[in-house]
Specification:
InterPro entries: 4Fe4S_Fe-S-bd, 4Fe4S_Fe_S_CS. The protein is of the alpha+beta class and about 250 residues long. The chain is built from 8 helices and 10 strands. The protein has one domain. The protein starts with 10 loop residues before the first helix and ends in a 5-residue tail after the last helix. It binds iron/sulfur cluster (SF4) (2 copies).
Length: about 250
């Protein structure tokens, strides 16, 4: 996540944030550290703006329950994504593939590439993985999983509000049975009680489909609205600019 250069953190603050169990010298902890740093250093050298590892064993029961139901027992997760400043990256385009055209945004493709690349890094070391890639439309389930990183919030618009970036990000998650050190010690964790959604409902008011209620997202209403040709423009062949009002209305940064 983005570093806040205005409020540099002291060595004491950073050290206080690192759980003691990560500082042990046994072989298992050493392996956990090495794997985590390998991923982290790769993400930093690839200049990936949204990166954070999650140690699922340190989550609350409620957070941990979001990671049930995989074909393996997950122990860690890796959040990866791109910041999006140009809304054109959310233009839906028909990309040709093996099974014909696939409607997808550039924002999704960037995040998918990160996720596939880092899945390979884990699988090559013998770990199992599953990817949950972002879509252009809200995904409250994914955004709650991303918020388990404690580096952002699950927004009322069904999108992940990344700490210093707001919801103009395209981020997904790799769930894995690899043991990882959680956190990103460059930045303090956020408190869900400080969510910018506390006193805001701009996304709910902005949604022309009535798909957001503040506590739920009616996917069908959103999809039907966005896919109605009366509700999108086509700046070029195979390109459509569809509704992203719940993102553009969000003041969180
Ligand atoms: S528009 Fe307001 S309520 Fe909606 S996600 Fe953004 S901050 Fe939260
Ligand atoms: S504002 Fe648009 S993209 Fe967001 S939920 Fe409503 S219809 Fe879907």
């Amino acid at each position: 996540m983005k570093k806040d250069w205005k409020s540099p953190r002291s060595r004491e603050q950073v050290t206080a944030q690192i759980p003691e169990e990560y500082q042990r010298r046994d072989a298992e902890t050493q392996n956990r550290r090495e794997l985590t740093f390998l991923l982290q250093e790769a993400a930093f050298s690839d200049h990936i703006p949204i990166y954070c590892a999650i140690d699922l064993t340190r989550l609350s029961d409620e957070e941990r329950a979001m990671f049930d139901g995989f074909r393996f027992t997950p122990r860690g997760a890796v959040v990866l994504g791109q910041t999006i400043r140009d809304m054109f990256l959310y233009a839906e385009q028909d990309i040709p593939g093996n099974k014909g055209f696939r409607p997808v945004t550039a924002a999704q493709l960037i995040a998918e590439n990160y996720l596939m690349e880092y899945r390979e890094k884990l699988e090559i070391q013998g770990y199992q993985t599953e990817i949950i890639a972002p879509e252009a439309i809200p995904d409250p389930t994914l955004s709650a999983m991303l918020a388990a990183s404690h580096k952002g919030y699950a927004g009322r618009n069904g999108r992940f509000l990344a700490g210093a970036y707001g919801c103009r990000v395209s981020a997904g998650i790799i769930v894995t049975d690899a043991p990882l050190m959680g956190g990103d010690y460059r930045f303090p964790d956020v408190d869900p009680a400080d969510s910018p959604c506390r006193s805001c409902r701009k996304c709910i008011d902005a949604c022309p489909a009535g798909a957001l209620t503040g506590t739920s997202f009616v996917r069908e209403k959103c999809v039907n609205y966005r896919n109605d040709p009366a509700h999108y423009s086509s700046p070029g062949t195979h390109t459509r600019l569809k509704c992203m009002a719940c993102m553009t209305a969000c003041p969180a940064e």
